Amino acid sequence: MSPALVLALSLVTGDVESRRSPVVKVVESVSPAVVYVGTVQVVETRFRRRNPLDELFYGPLEERRAVEGLGSGVIIDPAGLIVTNDHVIRGASEIHVVLADGRQLNAEVIGSDADADLAVLRVSSKQPLPAARLGTSSDLMIGETVIAIGSPLGLKKTVTVGVVSALGRTIKNEDQVFNDFIQTDASINPGNSGGPLLNVDGEIIGINSAIIASAQNIGFAIPADKVRRIVAELTQFGKVRPAWVGLDVVPITAELGQRIGWDRTYGALVASVEENSPAMQAGVQPGDVVMQVGSTQVESADDLRSRARGFTAGAPVTLKVFRAGRSLDLTLKPVEFPAQLVDATVWDRLGLRLKPVRGGMGIVAVRPGTPAQRVGLEPGDVVLRLNNAPVTTADEFREVIVQARGQRSVLLLVRRGARGYYLTLPF
Fold it and tell me: What does the pLDDT read at residue 110?
């Protein structure tokens, strides 16, 4: 090889290396761990018959069809654990993933949580799979560079780059409220859901989850610290255990704020603290104003209630509270909601005492003077569903009650004899 050719090749190689930026290095190292998630969901559609007599005798026509969905995911364990969004795999009868090397593998759901919009899948492979590192979101800086990798609109291995636009965002999606999102201007589109948001060290600092359809360059990701907690719960228990804090808060009116010396437009006022609860053990007192959860501001009482539903048992939570003109930092440790406390809550709020019976939860006592008594509930009635969820066991019933404890009312499907009817009771 001539000296001139060697020199030319070295110049080309050097030029390529000079263009291998931190973003390029992240993409090269992490892309093999990003997967395409494909799903199949069976949808049933009913049509009215043209002839009313046929409709009367045979019922409506039914059509079942398979609807395909798509999303992204990221391998976090070489043994085949994959993190994605709950909404990517919800209702799917079949789930498969396509690896970066083109292999397609069937996936099973280890656990999912709609409140956090996270799911954990598992695939089997004879060889260890490439995995990405789950980093931390506690030290994120607004303005720092982030990289999103996924399959927007089915375009696999798509890379977009942006910055952290904001932290601690709260957004509402249909009837759900999601808290503590990372906002980014890295382009995120349908199909990116479940893919990683990365820092320039190649660490996962978030899982892409949501977009605002009417906006441009506004995307949201679930922070890595929350992902770590939820994934630990899902892999160990198959679900997120409901956590108990023991804190009741109310909105801060102008009159209340003036009385306690609080002149801000945000925060939640502690109305009561339950005996022997994590909140009491942490030192929270009635009259405190909860200003922050972690490093993010609490906007309102509803905001704090929504965040509390996302706490996980055993994971410490830091609160900043305002008390008597000064701020205090407190740490509370939520615990799994005690079963006996659920029964007491049902008796206190609904005025019902129940026990498992065939097909549901049988009412054994109704407290006089309660809405339950006024609408006519009586011992022997059977609660079949609560908030449209089946309650065939005491555990199922308690789990739904824990999820509903921040609501103002609950919906019951009650059976009496051979008939069933729906009732709404204040909660």
Answer: 95
Q: Please give the Cα distance from 294 to 167 (Å, whole number).
A: 11
Looking only at the bridges linking them, the beta strands covering 389-390 and 118-122 are: unpaired
- Asked if 230 and 311 touch (Cβ cutoff 8 Å), the reply is no
Q: How far apart are CA 89 and CA 96, in angstroms?
A: 10
Compute, in degrees rounded to 10, the torsion defined by CA atoms 34, 198, 234, 359.
Answer: -80
What pLDDT is attached to residue 309? 77
- d(Cα 281, Cα 245) in Å, to the nearest integer? 10
Rounded distance between C-alpha atoms, residue 309 and residue 334, angstroms? 11
pLDDT of residue 3: 61
- DSSP code at position 338: P
Q: What's the one-letter identity of residue 110?
A: I
From residue 340, alpha-carbon distances to 315, 344, 394 in Å are 22, 6, 11
State the pLDDT at residue 1: 63
In a 3-state reduction of DSSP, which class is residue 416? strand
CB atoms within 10 A of CB 85: 26
* Catalytic sites, residue numbers: 87, 117, 193
Domains of the chain: 32-122 (2.40.10.120), 133-237 (2.40.10.10), 243-336 (2.30.42.10), 339-426 (2.30.42.10)
Terminal CA-to-CA distance of the chain, rounded, Å?
Answer: 84
Provide the phi-psi class of 67: left if phi over 0, else alpha when psi is between -120 and 50, else beta.
beta
pLDDT along the chain (427 residues), means of 10: 58 73 95 94 64 59 67 96 94 91 94 91 94 94 96 89 92 72 91 94 94 80 94 90 87 90 93 92 95 89 84 89 94 86 88 93 94 93 92 88 79 91 90
What gap in Å lies between CA 194 and CA 304, rounded to an integer?
A: 26
- Those residues whose C-beta lies under 8 Å from the C-beta of residue 86, and which sit 6 or more positions away, are 112, 113, 114, 116, 117, 118, 119
The pLDDT, as a whole number, for residue 17 is 83
Asked if 181 and 210 count as a contact pair (C-beta separation under 8 A), the reply is yes
